[in-house]
Amino acid sequence: LTYLVNSPVFQVLFFGFGWLFFMRQLFKDYEVRQYVVQVVFSITFAFSCTMFELIIFEILGTLSTASRYFHWKLNLYVILLVLIFVVPFYIGYFVVSNIRLLQRQRLLFACVVWFTFMYFFWKLGDPFPILSPKHGILSIEQLISRVGVIGVTLMALLSGFGAVNCPYTYMSYFLRNVTDSDILALERRLQQTMDMIVSKKKRIAMTRRQMYQRGEDQSKQTGFWGIIKSVTSSPSASENLSLIQQEVDALEELSRQLFLETVDLQATKERIEYSKTFQGKYFNVLGYFFSIYCVWKIFMVKFWSQHISFILVGIIIVTSIRGLLITLTKVNSAIPPSCVSPQGMYFVSSVLLIRMSMPLEYRTIVTEVLGELQFNFYHRWFDVIFLVSALSSILFLYLAHKQAPEKHMTP
Amino acid sequence: MASLDRVKVLVLGDSGVGKSSLVHLLCHNQVLGNPSWTVGCSVDVRVHDYKEGTPEEKTYYIELWDVGGSVGSASSVKSTRAVFYNSVNGIILVHDLTNKKSSQNLHRWSLEALNKDSSPTGVIVSNGDYDREQFAENPIPLLLIGTKYDQIPENKRNDVLARTAFLSEDFNAEEINLDCTNPRYFAAGSSNAVKLSRFFDKVKYFIKLAISLQATKVR
């Protein structure tokens, strides 16, 4: 049985799962023509899942220590290879091939971009006390440590924001009261604005046509009669035109704002309705608990929080991943490869962080595999970035919340 | 109450297919230099000469309402978009010839527009309620336009054209395939220009039909 689980079948399963997920969720409405992107994403996803799976095996004690060790090593090498070599090169290649000037020597320029990336990537290691001097240049620890820094920063930022945003979204205390008549009023204003734009544009079209028919077209001002005409005809026609055009531009900007405000109100109304349902109430309660925990975490009380924090960090990670992927689906014509790279870094650093939250006894094998990295540094770095991110999110949301109600006080 | 003073045609399609470029080309006979993402809805006016050269010649202003967004948008966006679908006289469905999904999504777009004869919050629009009952047999005229024609590789052209022919049969609509960065596709007298004129004439025909039916209803 253990051999079966070890086998490539599992890997292929995860690979296939990643592929399916990618196809269905991310690109439901759009077509992705580059198969390389799909393959790379699926590989990253598959191997990341395998890493999580290995952690669970570690805790449960399944498989022999030797085979687990082997799989850890294999996984890490593959992921690092993809993250540091394949993905940046492909991104560089894609960007370069989009710039017409460099089209000819695509490969060459992609290599240049990759070397630049590697230079900055290496430099990243200098300000941080992450290595002890006895490691060689190309050792795995060098690479992991750098990937770790990037990933930990990203994760701390996201968790900080998520920790603040999640209670804000789900707790009904923060929901502004929106009535149907508010929405109706806004929609009426939007409709009126569109009608005004239409009538002004008709006037512009009509005036232009009349000007053309009377031969006032500027390109036709030649000859004697042309000069006479340009002197005697009132200049007001074209001045009028530019005046109306300015009004139209202002109205169009207004219509866009009204549209966005209406969407916002509709979304709030839906959230209010959702909060009245059973699911909504459940999340509301969860939101209160969650916010209490987040506040607690922000002030860093280290009690027997290890076990709780392991579970909760896991939840935060999962919801952040979900939020991240949802945000990605909203980005319309995004360059597909840009989705892959942060994702991979994210997954690798998730391992590091899970290690942080894991109870002491399970840390041994992770330490053994990842070498002697300075884990304490990562913990402190995560806490700092988490704190910064959470506080700035609070500030940001407070400002946004304050600003919104005043806009809907229509006279 | 339908009236010939307003002829409203929706331009629908996925993000990035080229609706804004198309509308600009139709209204100004010029290529749009800097297309950007449409937020909400952008309207433009096309001057159309009905029965040009005949004694019945009349000039109409056709409003082209270019609605932005995608079929998979959040329901809050969809209910707000419904404001633009009031009293529509014709629909131009735009899809990207290099992107199959955009063609498939057109069915959802047409459903979204045709099912919304008034917005869910019941806004009453000043230029009339469109009475759907009377027009069960006469649906709103549709026109199918495929963009980015120049970007299809030579060997795939026939497949793409066959596919769009099926699509136009589905919608019972005329189809035009073009490249929005090239004004010659709508040059006067070209087959595309003729198809376009026919479409707008059909739109006006249905409006006149609506007016006459309403007149008989009053009596």
TrEMBL record, chain A:
Keyword field contains Ribosomal protein: no
Q: Which residues cross the membrane?
A: 6-23, 35-56, 76-95, 107-124, 144-166, 282-301, 307-328, 340-358, 378-400
* InterPro entries, per database record: ABA_GPCR_dom, Golgi_pH-regulator_cons_dom, GPHR/GTG
Q: Where is the signal peptide?
A: none
Where is it chiefly localized? membrane
Which parts of the sequence belong to the Abscisic acid G-protein coupled receptor-like domain?
Answer: 303-402
Q: Name one GO biological process term.
A: intracellular pH reduction
Is Transferase one of the keywords? no
The record's GO CC annotations read:
Golgi cisterna membrane
Family under the similarity heading? Belongs to the Golgi pH regulator (TC 1.A.38) family.
Name under which the protein is recorded:
G protein-coupled receptor 89B
Automatic annotation (TrEMBL), chain B:
Q: What start-end ranges are recorded for coiled-coil regions in this protein?
A: none
> What Pfam families does UniProt report for this protein, alphabetically?
Roc
Select a single GO molecular function from the record's annotations and give it. Answer: GTP binding
The residues forming the signal peptide are none
Annotated InterPro entries: P-loop_NTPase (IPR027417)
- What keywords were assigned to this record? GTP-binding, Nucleotide-binding
Q: Which PANTHER family does the entry mention?
A: DRAB5-RELATED (PTHR24073)
Q: What does this protein do?
A: Required for KRAS signaling regulation and modulation of cell proliferation. Regulator of KRAS prenylation, and probably prenylation of other small GTPases. Required for lymphocyte development and function. Not required for myeloid cell development.
Family assignment from sequence similarity:
Belongs to the small GTPase superfamily. Rab family.
Protein name per Swiss-Prot or TrEMBL: Rab-like protein 3
Name the species this protein comes from: Electrophorus electricus (Electric eel)
What gene does this protein come from?
RABL3
